[in-house]
Each structure stands twice: as structure tokens, then as C-alpha cells.
Amino acid sequence: MKRLSFQALLLVAAPLLLLVLPHVLQDPEGQEVAPLECITVIAVRHGEKDRTEKRDPVLTEAGEERARELARMLSASGVSHVFSTPYRRTRATVAPLAALMELEVTEYSPKDLGSFAKRLAQLPPGSVALVAGHSNTTPSLVLALGGKIVELETLNGVPALGDQQFDRLFVTTLPPAGQQVNTLELRFGAETK
């Protein structure tokens, strides 16, 4: 798969920017009303892992490159919070961006995604959170937030990314109560074969 040029990436990312940036609405009489500030959750699976390590594997060179690409891609996105499961591969996936943005990485438990989704929904309006998870927890988190994902595999009855799918990035916007949650699915970095 070819890597997208910067211009092509910009065309793909432009809708993301429209979702992330607060916008000003006008009432029917043309008066400005307060801006809607959504909470944006960017969910990714960890990068490629070293499959020779059975317990808590590290990222491979390809996984480290993917983490650097993620940091480059999100460096101007306004990420204000970074979350990771307590595993080396997820922490390493978000570490380059956290360092670049001078943010702490906050751990969350992948075993209670419902509570974590509620916690994300309670972030201050306008927050942008990057969340690193796993093949099964990343799609489950997007669904717990109210987002939608198409064409997923199932692993033990749970929606999951395929074994070699490390290039998906899900951007879910949580608008003020009563409005529709939206999810944008993107791909980044090189496709894993």
C-alpha cells in the first residue's frame, strides 16, 4: 500500500479538523450562540509488537516507526490527554506524542471500558484525548463511546481488529448531550503484511 502524500493526508484529515475545532452556531435570527465544544477521542491500537516475547512484548522496529508517525501526524491536533493500558507496547505507541506535547501518559484498565468511556466523556469540553489500546479493546471503546465501526472481525464474540491491522485510527467526537456521536476511521503508517 502506498503511503499518502502530505497533500492527500491533508484532504483526508480536513474533515477531522472540522470535527475537532469548535464551531460557532447561529440561531434562526442570525444571533451568535455559544460555540459547541466536543470532546474528541482518538483511539489507536498499539503498533506492531515483538511476537517472540509472550509476556508484555515491546514494539518492533516497525511498531516504533508507527509510533513516530502517529506523533508526527497528531502533533498539531491539540491532544490534551494521553491514555494507555499498562503494557509496554501501548505505552511505547503513545510515548513519542506524549513527549512532544509534554503530557503525562495516564493508565487505564482495559477490563472496564464502560467506566473508562464515561471518564472520557467527562473530560473538559474541547479536550482531545489519544487512547492506545489493543485489537479487541480499541473497537470496544469506540462502541462504548457510542461510535460506529464497520467491517470488524469478531474475537470470542467481541468486535476486534485483525491480527495484522495496526494502521487504523478512530476519531470519535462526543458532542454535548442529546447530539449524535460521530466516528471517523483513518489509516496511518505502512500497512502490515
Description:
The chain has a single domain, classed as Phosphoglycerate mutase-like (Rossmann fold). It is 31% helix and 20% strand. Strand 5 (153-155) and strand 6 (158-160) form a beta hairpin. By secondary structure, it is an alpha/beta fold. The strands form 2 sheets. The chain has a 6-stranded mixed sheet, with helices on both faces. The chain is built from 5 helices and 8 strands, in the order H-E-H-E-H-E-H-E-H-E-E-E-E. Helix 2 runs parallel beside helix 3 (88-101).
Specify Rg, calculated over alpha carbons: 17 Å
Low-confidence stretches: 1-12, 14-26
Tell me the series of helices and strands, N- to C-terminal. HEHEHEHEHEEEE
Q: Helicity range of the residues?
A: 25-40%
Spatial shape: globular
Biggest sheet character:
6 strands, mixed
Total strands? 8
CATH top level class name: Alpha Beta
Strand content: 15-25%
Distance N to C terminus: 10 Å
CATH fourth-tier homologous superfamily: Phosphoglycerate mutase-like
Please work out how many helical segments DSSP would assign: 5
Mean pLDDT: 85
Topology overview:
Blueprint: H1 6-20, E1 39-45, H2 61-74, E2 81-84, H3 88-101, E3 105-107, H4 113-121, E4 128-133, H5 137-144, E5 153-155, E6 158-160, E7 168-174, E8 182-187
Parallel strand pairs: 1-4, 2-3, 2-4
Antiparallel strand pairs: 1-7, 5-6, 7-8
How do you describe this structure in short?
This protein has 193 residues and is α/β, with parallel strands linked by helices. It contains five helices and eight strands, in the order αβαβαβαβαββββ.
